[in-house]
Amino acid sequence: MIGFIGTGLMGSRMAGRLIDAGNELVVYNRTRTKAEPLIIKGARWANSPKQVGAQTDIVFTMLADPQAVDAVAYGEDGLLNGLKPGSLWVDSSTISPTQSIRLAKAAQEKEIRFLDAPVAGSTGPAEKGELVFFVGGSEKALEEARPLLEIMGKAVHYKGTNGAGAAMKLVNNLMLGQTVAAFSEALAFGESLGLDKAGIIRSLFAGPTAAPILHFKADKFMNEDFAHADFKVNSIYKDMELASEEAYTHGFALPLSNAVKAMYGLCQQQGKGTHDFATLYDFLKKK
To answer: One Pfam family from the UniProt entry (predicted)?
Structure first.
């Protein structure tokens, strides 16, 4: 039996793929209504993270922020109080390496194995099983989890000991935020010079600078439909803030990232925190 905790935009799609592949799931989410589509598909509901752990040998968590992960992990009804010795917990949330290492140690004290396995990819890749997993922890534990990861993703990158997967996710999302910001500024600048938006995008995509994420976001830039989010401003800001905090603890400066992070913060102040992070284009363009 597999457990899945966190059935929001990403988790619901990941769990759905596991069910579609014939796996039996026990699910928990803070808001039960978000888990209902999975329950209709055959998942069993649990009333707490502890109950999920008690019924399963492997549990996946996909949660919104570091506070949510700690809330699920600890406490009387927490996951760590339910999992049996020898069980495996795979956390796909985006949290700091420091927090991942702390969770791994707390799990180890209860003879529970822990992998940090955050993902690259948003709702579309999650639905299609095209996520990329960055994994930190025991290679033996990874091989046990790999068949399930390969149902949800197209690639599994082993990065090293606990915390290394979380570290790679911060590196990835640091560049993700910068890439969308750079494209947004270039596109807005081109329009200010009188160039046609569709033509700018077509020419940039024909050159060497357009990353895959920009092709994925092309329709959002063209139609300026940012209210429907694949990845929210709140989420990229949170991830870049985690990177900034981790960089501080390691004595490393992030001058470009901190400037970009501030722009996403300004989008939040304009009430666009739940908009797609490509809304930065709308923030920058000449009105």
So the answer is: NAD_binding_11
For residue 149, what are the domain limits?
Answer: 2-160
Whole-angstrom distance, CA of residue 1 vs CA of residue 60: 12
- How many whole angstroms separate alpha carbon 226 and alpha carbon 220? 6
DSSP annotation of 253 = -
- Picking from 128, 160, 192, the residue at the C-terminal end of a domain is 160
Residues forming the active site: 169
Looking at the structure, tell me whether residues 204 and 223 fall in a common domain.
yes
CA of residue 155 relative to chain centroid, distance? 15
Token digits for 124? 């579309």
The 10s digit of each residue's pLDDT in 266-280 is 999 999 999 999 999
Distance CA 187, CA 196 (A): 10
Confidence of residue 287 (pLDDT cuts 50, 70, 90): confident
Give me the CATH number covering residue 88.
3.40.50.720
Kindly list the distances between the CA atom of residue 74 and the CA atoms of 81, 93, 107, in Å, as whole numbers in the listed order: 7, 16, 10
